[in-house]
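dumping these here so i dont lose them again. two proteins, back to back, each one seq then structure tokens. dont judge the mess
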Amino acid sequence: MTVTETSPPIRWGILGTARIATKVGRAIHRSRGAVLAAVASRDKSRAQAWIARHTRDTSAANDTQAFLDPDTRVAACGSYLALLENQNIDAVYIPLPPSLHCEWTCLAARYGKHVLCEKPLAMDLAEAQQMSNACAAAGRQLMDGVMWAHHERTGAMREIIRSGALGSLRRVTAGFTNGATLRPDDIRFQREMGGGALGDLGWYCVGALSWAFDELPERVFATARYEQDVDRNLSALLWFRDGRMAAFDCGFDVVWRKWFEIAGTQGTIVCDDFVNPWDAAKARFWVHDNKGQGTQHLAADCVQEVRMIENFCDAVRSGELNPAWPAAALATQKVCDALDQSARTQTVVDLK
């Protein structure tokens, strides 16, 4: 369904006030056909403070954190359940730790809410499948919060792959590291909360490899460096059918990198910032032919988190669930589970 001036907006609630909630909350506020209606925290005062912090002060010269208009009405809820019980909410965004994703996604579906859930989708494939089943049974959309998949640049790269310009795809290589300085009590260092570089960063690489080849690997191998029983850095090899291969690394202890190369028999695509553009107004990638001649491609100005929210709202408004989104998240979860098993046992894991 096309959004018109008379189309009712999709009313969003956010469960939690994690840092990423600011980015997605801003995207909801700026998206066509969407409105941020409620924010929940286990402490209502934190929800109120979050709303106040992001409401514009017209007297302030540089209010960089604020994006809500002063007349915007956003309800503050003192519990996640109170937000789910609000019948004026159509969809929820869940930026909670991965260990809480299954519980609150299933509850949200039970209360009739569509769910956009942060990645990694779940602690393991069994939980991810439970979440997908709960949303499907309730007739509610489920999507993981992988923003790059919604950028116009991603579609442009897909068209080049499908055109055959690269020849037969043979290898995909990726890296996502962020040079993060993490405190020992950061949830990314707590395995029981779903921490680790694989779920936090490698999730994007696994999704990119599967996206490029348009299928899952047949077997995988990974090795990792651990701290507090959490993978601080992980490197992986993935074997696909017909002799094709992929490799990636992810980690908290290497400088900021977020690139991939897709190599075929006749050319390559190189994107040095696939997770999110270094410059949002200049999303670029390069195509190199078999003589080394490179051509830079620029995508139209696109804010990928806004496009993600708009795509989600369009699916909700249409009344027809898009099964591709939960299917992609389940596939990524399956590969990540296999890679985690491989790294901890130092064995090749078969996915067939």
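---- next one ----
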Amino acid sequence: MINSRRSFLCSLGLGTAAGLLWPIRGSSRPITFEPGTYGDLDGVIRLNSNENAYGPSPKVAETIASVVAGANRYPRMQYGLLREHIAASHRIKPEQVILGCGSTEVLRMAVFAFLGSGKRVIHAVPTFEAIGQYANAAGSEPIGVHLTSGFAHDLGGMLSRIDANTGLIYICNPNNPTASLTHRKDLEEFIQRVPTSVPAVIDEAYHHYAGQSGMYSSFIDHPIEDDRIIVTRTFSKVYGLAGLRIGYAVASPKIARQMQKFGTDDNINAIATSTAVVALDDVAGTSEAVQRNANDRQEFFNQAMARALKPIDSHANFVMMNTYHPAAQVVEHFRVNNILIGPVFPSMETHIRVSLGTRDEIAAFWRTWDMIPWSKNIGHH
């Protein structure tokens, strides 16, 4: 039985921030989010899931508090408003927007819309694992193509694997787990050479951290009018809403209709639906989160290079670097010292992926790194 406001909020997945988010009658104190030092697990620092360690902006946190009272209502009447808001922010039509319980559900929709028994999905190795897992569940075959030596997608190699059984292509850009970019111009040329019957999912979960440049720009903000392009986004990263589970995709109306057939009814909760609208409008909060991440990322690189480590150039909120030792041993070293970092990726078995945490959390990471017996000799591998 839920017998308090705090336990009610915890049951909604708001965790330790719940007491800080509940509006206090008669108080003019601004509502802010103060992330717990160690997240949900007592004594454990979580640098393993590429979350925003600082949580949502004050404006978004205040919205979460204000909409909790409506948690007893189904949110379906709000979906149209959210769709329209996303469409307006990208200057597209509402019928091009597909909503999902996190962008992972949108990936599942794409898999079940375009794959099936005997079909294949082509993806990079390594990349975000969900696409391969969903493909296996659909009875399809994942076809992995290794990244280039510069950690970009091997687009030529991916093209060479396309055949009559190819139903989908998956490109995560910036890529997870490497945080690397594939050049926008190369992607445009690649799409033009893909058969018109094969959709390509471009996963832009880390879009905000990549910045705009000649090398990178979003396929939403600079759209190609093509049924082959599906772009996915999430509110889990820069907006700090991973626990609320909300994401979306943008595609042509035809492709959107095909994918929506495989969505779950009432798949976005009432708190997430209302909060996402405010998050999209909170330009100042988003800019602050991006700048803070850039500062933390630079400090991580400074500390790494001071230890003769050279991480892969990162365009996200995590860093991947070569330890020149079995990654499984490094991951275990951090685990026994109450720090979780990313899993071992079979194609990069000496690399570790570290999500950017708060300043205190990353300081703890480096203290724990310095405890590794061979860490002082890393430059002599």
